[in-house]
Amino acid sequence: MSEEVILRFDEVSFEYINKKPVLDEASFSVRKGAKITLMGQNGAGKSTIFNLIKGELQPKSGRLSIAGDATIGTARQVIAREDLALTVEDYFAKAFDMVPGNLPSRISKVLSAVNFEIPLERIVGDLSGGQQARLLLAYALIQDPDILLLDEPTNNLDQAGIDHLIAFLVMYDKTVLVISHDADFLNCFTEGVVYLDVFTRKTELYVGDYYSVVEEIGQRVEREMMKNAQLEKKIQDRKEKVNFFANKGGKMRKLAQKLKEETAELEENKVEVRKEDKTIRPFTIPCQDTARSTPRQARGSGLAGTIVTLHKVRVIKNHEPSFKEVDKTLGKRDRLIITGPNGIGKSTLLRSLVFTKHEGVEIAPEVIVGYYSQDFSTLKFDDKVFDSLKNIAANGIDDQQIRSCAAGFLITGELMEHKIEELSEGQKGLLSFARLVLMKPGLLILDEPTNHINFRHIPVIAEAINNFAGTIIMVSHMPEFVGQIKFDDELNLGTL
User: Hey, which CATH number is domain 5-71+145-214, 3.40.50.300, 3.20.20.150, 3.60.20.10, 3.30.930.10?
Assistant: First the structure.
């Protein structure tokens, strides 16, 4: 592999206006043809680094250099909202300053590379989350970039789509930087990690596969903590001696001063231990109770009777929709997992339950629905974070409880006054879970609830969902996550 450096950050610092710094003298380099992971806690600045590379942001200080005239292509996390009304062909046309005459054939080539067939006149917003994920990658590839930036590329992809993407990236001979919380995916093809520390705002470059690097970081943290513990013991011993000799007077006072200076030096020698990614606190999603229910429900038992009925569902095959008869009735505590390949209509079914109900799909009218949308369509991006939480909170929940709940999801301090549009995708996901806790739903409808979420949080989220006392309907393409939740039934749209 070439040793030529294609990308270099040299003591780059960056901060958004009126906000805390994001990067502080970040330094790392990437070789031509390398496959590198950007790793760090939600909000550490991973997407900021991408925007700096693309030239959409400029460093406050330091230097960012890209070799020669290397071009940049980006597969974003989500389709921009203003692009959802475009046709597939018009969407790809936006990748060019001058639209090439052979655009349809070029689109066909990149769609083939991501294992996707779609009529060019289809509206982008009508595609499923998995189909949009393939479209995002194809959009980056059609630019034939020297540096490919992938931001959560496995979100919404089924296993077949992920396997195809891995095979593609293994064979891809250009430079790739990827942000992802899918550890197994990353371990298959990346050869190094740029670690962003959200607390020090520094970057560090590690060489090796993803799991090896995570283990190396863990071992380093352990060594640093052990060294600090030894130093702390010496510091405490010196302080006790200082206090003892300081009261003796004469030469003893001079010795106390000397020991005090040695103590200060020991303090300076303490290693700044990496504050590893914080994990969200264990949490409970309270279930809708009788105090907020109607007389139709049995007193003292919460929601009762039929919560959801599914007798007819819309299925999309070969880009053609049709309705299929089913027989699913869910009561309190019933749990249904909806499966099927990308594009079959899983997210469409969930949206129809929440918003556009049709004959054969119904939620009991008294039920409070907690909907986690994969595209965060339930969030108003112009709202401040605190207002978004307060507006959804059930009666009796005060401001202090709201802030305490948010803190459990690592949404603290000044973040509460930010607009939702300023949050990272991962922070939007955690905000969505905080909203579910505060609203006390009777029914959870979860559409890819692990998208954008740091893998360290996922076991905590799985436990909370598994302990929910109400009804659950979920779509997820993460088998290890689904395996942690006990489902009573499955609806496979692909077999209807």
Answer: 3.40.50.300
